Amino acid sequence: MDGDTPPHARDIQSVRTALGTSFDGLSDEEARRRLERYGKNILEEEEISRFRIFIKQFQDFLIYILMAAAVIALLAADFKDFVVIVALILVNGLIGYWQELKAESSIRALKKLTESRVSVVREGEIRQVPSPEIVHGDVVLLAEGDIVTADIRLYESYGLAVDEATMTGESVPVSKDHQAVLDPGAQPYELANSLLSGTTVVRGSGRGFVVRTGRDTYLAGIAARAQEASPESPFTRAIRDFSMRYAVLIMIILVLVGTVAFLQGRELVGIAYLLVAQLVSAVPAGLPLVVTLVMVVGALALSRKQTLTRHLPSVETLGSATVIASDKTGTITEGRLAVQDDVALDSRALMLAAALCNDAREGTGDPIDVALSRWVGEYGELRERHPRTWVFPFDTAMKLMATANEVDGRRRFFIKGAFEELAKRAENRDDLAALEERLNAMAEGGLRVLAFGAGDWQGEDPDAWRYEIVGLVGFLDPPKDGVRESVITARKAGIRVLMITGDYPLTARAIAGEVAIWKEGESVLTGGEIESMDDDALYAALATATVLARVIPEHKYRVVRVLQDRGEIVAVSGDGVNDVPALKAADLGIAMGSGTEAAKSVAKMVILDNNLRVIVDAIENGRVIVDNVRKVIYYLLSTSISEVVLISTSIFAGFPLPLVPIQILWINLVTDGVQDKMFPFIKEEGDVMRRPPKPPARQFFERRQITRILIFGLVMGMASFLVFEHLIFRFPYETANAIIFTAFAAFQWSNGIQAQKEHEPFFVNIRRSLTINPLIFLSVLIGLVLQLAAIYIVPSWFNAVPLAPEQWGYVALLAVVAFAVVETIKWVEYLADRAAG
């Protein structure tokens, strides 16, 4: 449509002229020309080959790390880890490939909302045409149950109401008035004279001109956002940044060791052997595999709590979330209206009016009518006993509906609608002031209020109607069970909960107040206010705002981006097409199981029980997963650094290698290879929801974590060197080497046991220390049996010799020292935390 003024801001004649059409519709020839000019009324999408879809599953930084670990395992002849890692990569890729082949594409899902057959007027005749073939200027006929397949400017409407929840988040049908002429800057939820593609007619009928099709529709704008790339997960970013820094550190160590070895006059073959030993000791090859296993086990645990994971790193993102931006309808609330309050001047008359002036049938129909039918206990019986003899359908201009029914042998009149409209004809004027006061109080509480009247039948002419207002009924979409408790839990955990909705501010605030999202002193931010702010002002406003009302998809998307740009980890929940841009942009998009395919296709998680409570429960699980990832990172890096320190110090001191590469690989098998596989099963340590969230980089690599890793690595590396120095002068090299070989495995077992608990020392609660993960002791037993086999059954395979009984004292010494080092660190931190409160 040409011109700068949008259709909703023009009168009907101006729209018709601008479109070059008429009330008799387009000619077939003109429709064909316009189809060629503007294209089909479909959402365009890029066709992606199955091969590209498959390859895309492996374009992830975590997968790259796993691939690198597989190569290292292969070079080190560790075929077991190589096979496991490759299998894990392939399974992960096949799962992602299968999910994409199931057509969980947002654009295809959005297309389903607009593909049907449409009634149009062509050549003055009503015809049924496929929705992709309607064009600008077509006259479209709409009736109850029809899906709107293009953006339309109405020129006729008869009690027309449309469900716009998937577009705007509005929780109840929106009445339309074709005669309205709106401000050019009206928001989508204000378009009283227009229909948006993807919405559904729930009541009445109408006609209108098609003003936008295909890629020009409001729906297409949402689809464009859905095609944007999702942000990299915070966990992936943290692992990538750490890996790059650690790789630089390893290169520096290798260069330093190689230089010292060269200056010592060692042969090049020997130097190469040293560097291989150093590389094997420095690289925690099992880290990416075990971290992935922790997340896989976490994802399985989440699935038992009705949370399905579509993107594996998202299980960690849950634990790092600082903000939950939740949709209202269907997540916080039931997604259906219910009678919340009423004022009855005549209880029987109010019940009759609610039951008889009502079009609900078997629980279906207008949500307000359905709510009234549930509220009236004898709805079906009343309608049967008092048959309807006349009806005045809901009129959007008059904002009311009326019926006549046979009651007690006479014809009675019943009416419902806006209080201000019913008050114009009401005969009980002495009651109106008190009723209006009650109505204002109900409206202030966020209720949608209808007035009801009853009287004797006076005829069909509205001017002849005579009745008394018999009561008021207030409606609200009630909160779901458990939501309030979950919000309080989230707040205690330092997580901000924002409710984002297309509903009216008062209604939104009332719901938010009931579930503890909003409280006195906090603010409600509207879409109009969001548009008037720059990003800095918006972020400042979000510091006190907990409710965002009359919000459209662009606003929700922008709020997510502004929060992310300031370092927040944002989880967004939603179920409608209007939620797609924000779900895609979020660090963690969570779709409802009963939501639209468009929402589920871009989300990284899907919850089967549409309840905010499930999200908060999942965050609790996510925090346990984060803790376990943190613990396994500590365990693997601290042992790797102790190996680096031992070997580097020995080389710098001019000593022979205390451990040869085959021994390092074997130690990794009987310690890392067995123990670290048990870390996914560590139970929750304390109340994880009483701790504030941390960004992933600080979760895994903050000062306390790094300090622990370095202290353990340096102390145990030096302690092992001092023991090796003592042994090398007392025993033959082969014996000294065999003792260090076994002792190194033993003190790593001690470290693994200690790593199961982080927030309190082992001896503070011995029972919890022993039960937090009993499998860790099984792993020690397995490792010990394997080590004994290596020392006493096939020592030649590992360049070792059997140990005499008295030589096990050195092994025990290093194991006890390792345990004591970690316990001392924990006590220092534990006492410091208690002193700080």
Automatic annotation (TrEMBL):
Residues 6-78 form the Cation-transporting P-type ATPase N-terminal domain. PROSITE patterns: ATPASE_E1_E2. Its main location: membrane. It is a multi-pass membrane protein. Gene3D superfamilies: Calcium-transporting ATPase, cytoplasmic domain N (3.40.1110.10), Calcium-transporting ATPase, cytoplasmic transduction domain A (2.70.150.10), Calcium-transporting ATPase, transmembrane domain (1.20.1110.10), HAD superfamily/HAD-like (3.40.50.1000). Keywords: ATP-binding, Membrane, Nucleotide-binding, Translocase, Transmembrane, Transmembrane helix. The chain crosses the membrane at residues 58-76, 82-98, 246-265, 271-302, 709-729, 774-795, 807-825. It is found in: Membrane. The keyword Cell cycle does not apply. It holds the Pfam family Cation_ATPase_C. This is Cation-transporting P-type ATPase. It comes from Methanoculleus frigidifontis.
